[in-house]
């Protein structure tokens, strides 16, 4: 008997599933211990259904979700519609009806994952979502299974292909943010509203999920500090290169003595850091742990086949467990009480670009302000900007988030100094 699945949505990722089921049918059958069959596909309306049928898609398309959720023959529901609603309502109803669910919806899982997992647990249903973080990189299952005996101390990740493509153009070609965005939109990497990608929101969703799998703690999306790439200027990029760094949008989740800290921010990476060579639309997750030390998982973070591959892997896992009679185990069993780090425990070196009138004694005044917060300099560079203005670039030694906000407040109070940009620096 085949395991019957119902797809919710038939867009980019979902329409890659039939290809994989056909192309790798034998292997999938051996792993799942049963044939996997697409029984029904939910589409929005009859127009869409007729369009898909006319295009040669020989499936049973339905326009009412109940046709899937109430079908006793369907055991796995695969949500690939995206966005919060109606995906959340549909998944909840499917779980409540005892269906197992696979999704790739990071937005939904990062914000409403806890409540959906509770419904899954109540109904002894599986809810798997490997594709929600870094599409084609099997990172969640790696953290949950292969690294289960290890203690993870930090996870760093290039988690958004669109912004990484843009940063690569800005670094390698010296493009402005605006030019890089226009190119990303022309190539279909960025949506017409790119906010989620360029402002670090998409990567922050993934950081929430990584915090659960890597550290057993559920950090709320609102507790992930996120800063995007839109304020990065060619001057920042050039000075980073001059000092031996590459700027990338990096997700950073780590455990400190007081708890966990997660943020997404443009970060100066030393050129020799493995993440510095992750270019274009590629993603990578760099894990620091006590046992293995450093390991990096690299691959496509999006795209039809890579993402569908992760989705089908989840489907296979559920089908196999259905066959073995042990379905319903949670995707991630590592759960601890969540403790959020105190800002004084979250430490990094920082890059400051500060504009100041080009007159004597300014550097000394700056040094005094930083010194009043016990912040010391690693590197200082003074550049003439234009006319009477100078641009001072400082790479500090390690400082805490508390020190950072204090010094920014003090700099704000001095009319002579304008902080142009502040970014985290790794490896100082
Ligand atoms: N694309 C990737 O590379 C990638 C990578 C990782 C994760 N994901 C995640 O995978 C999910 C699917 O992404 P995708 O790129 O395949 O999106 P997509 O191409 O936009 O496909 C979603 C499909 O679902 C349809 N849909 C939306 N609401 C529906 C409803 N109420 N009933 C029936 N159909 C509905 C959409 O129709 P309309 O177009 O008419 O709205 C569209 O055809 C998202 O959660 C995304 O974040 C995608």
TrEMBL record:
Keywords: Amino-acid biosynthesis, Metal-binding, Methionine biosynthesis, NAD, NADP, Oxidoreductase, Sodium, Threonine biosynthesis. It comes from the Bacteria. Transmembrane segments: none annotated. Gene3D superfamilies: 3.30.70.260, Dihydrodipicolinate Reductase, domain 2, NAD(P)-binding Rossmann-like Domain. GO terms for molecular function: homoserine dehydrogenase activity; metal ion binding; NADP binding. The active site is at residue 206. Its cofactor is a metal cation. Residues 351-427 form the ACT domain. CDD domains: ACT_HSDH-Hom. Pathway: Amino-acid biosynthesis; L-methionine biosynthesis via de novo pathway; L-homoserine from L-aspartate: step 3/3; Amino-acid biosynthesis; L-threonine biosynthesis; L-threonine from L-aspartate: step 3/5. It is an enzyme of class 1 (oxidoreductase). Belongs to the homoserine dehydrogenase family. This is Homoserine dehydrogenase. It comes from Streptococcus pantholopis.
